[in-house]
Amino acid sequence: MSESQSDQKLLKIGELAAMGGISVKAMHVYEEKNIIRPAYVDEATGYRYYRASQLTELESLLGLQDLGFSLNEISEILSGTISKEDVSALFEQKKNALQESLWKIEAQIQGLDSMKDSLESGAEKMREMSDEERAHYLSKLVVLNDQNVRQVLSEVIWL
Question: What is the value of pTM for the model shown?
Answer without folding.
Answer: 0.63
